[in-house]
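Components:
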Amino acid sequence: MPMAGSAPADSPVIKPPLWLLAELTYACPLQCPYCSNPMEIAGYKNELDTADWMRVLQQARKMGATQLGFSGGEPLVRRDLEQLIAEARRLGFYTNLITSGLGMDEKRISAFKEAGLDHIQVSFQASTGELNNYIAGTDSFEHKKEMARQVKKQGYPMVLCFVLHRKNEDQIRDILELAVALEADYVELATTQYYGWAYHNREQLLPTRAQLAHAEAVAKEYQEKMKGRMKIYYVIPDYFETRPKRCMDGWGSVFLTVAPDGTALPCHAARQLPGIEFPSVRDHDVAWIWNESPAFNRFRGLDWMKEPCRSCPEKEKDLGGCRCQAFMLTGDAANADPVCDKSPLHHLVTDEVERVQQLAGKKEFEAKPLVFRNMANSKRLTEAAN
Amino acid sequence: MGTITDAHVPFITPQFRFQWEEVQNCHVILYPEGMVKLSASAGEILRRCDGLRNVGAIITDLEQQFPGADLGPDVRKFLEDAHAHGWIRTR
Ligand code: SF4
Ligand code: SF4
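Structure:
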């Protein structure tokens, strides 16, 4: 989130959360194999009810959160979404709906407007119906386009989000043309981050260096061409970098995620970290969770760091990268994110990137099926893992 | 650039939200997934961009409230920046 003006670094006071990400449900009509939801979605059934969410909104707003994202899963599945939007507006949140577009129509979009929704982000899987519907696991392309037109027509600022990976990266020009045709105000070219389902499908999603170079050049071209009309965000995927990203702008520093079952998380992927008990909004208020809970203090600041981060001159800049990535790849969440080339385990990233470079395009390798994100696969894979 | 004259009537662009934030102790501009914290003077200027008065009236009002300085050039400059960011429009 771009911010003008910033607080002094390492101030001992805990700054309040600015962002509340409300994952209303894990239910979703789509099945994106790059979904960052946990593989165990089928196991979380006990969703918060309307009153719980109202309370969470009130408590987070009172602490000073200004941005609210309704996401999931597919937030449109929740029948009380209109009610939650109205409460969010009353409290003074800037409310973002992050959606696949499935589960709304012209009427519902206007009901959201009436309730006070500020912005709708619609995700697309590709620039053609064929690939979009294949990746989404659902026939959804035409409906998405229609919804994007409605979003514009009804006066919302519109963000279109495209998650990029090896299967659609080469469509980059057509993707941007689609965004131009739909008159997006902002376009997020979000390179797949390897959490949850995306991690499981990593070798089929990792792009090649040639693809990335091409995508970056085309994105730059459109950034120039569309200046002042459409803002295009393109981030180089961290697997191809030598320094990690400043993940979530710091643990417990800006973002508060609340999962469908009420578990509060410093980022949506953190649930997998072992040895941390993440508090629930059913048992605690948001202020306690943010300020006092051991989970939100676990990786706050810099004191938890090990070498090479501890003595690194760049530690204030990237805060050692992503804790989840450190855990997934090295087995210890307190290690340096292995994306960093100062990490003794950096080869875990580069080896995988190299391996995929060699194999990409080969018939047998590309033929390996993607594992789609759905409840049946979740059950099957979770049982297999236990 | 001189795109803003004293006769223009500025108002906040509907796709942006301008509001006071108690916890931050400042005015902010909110937009999709982002926020800009405003300085006290920027907040005072935008607070007056209500779509009713023109830039000349806004400057007069500010000079009454904060006497002793010629605020005109700074206000016009800020409004031009705000216009370039898309925060305000004029009629
Ligand atoms: S990434 Fe795809 S499958 Fe996952 S929640 Fe979003 S739309 Fe649903
Ligand atoms: S060693 Fe740690 S702190 Fe230093 S650049 Fe790498 S990840 Fe960042």
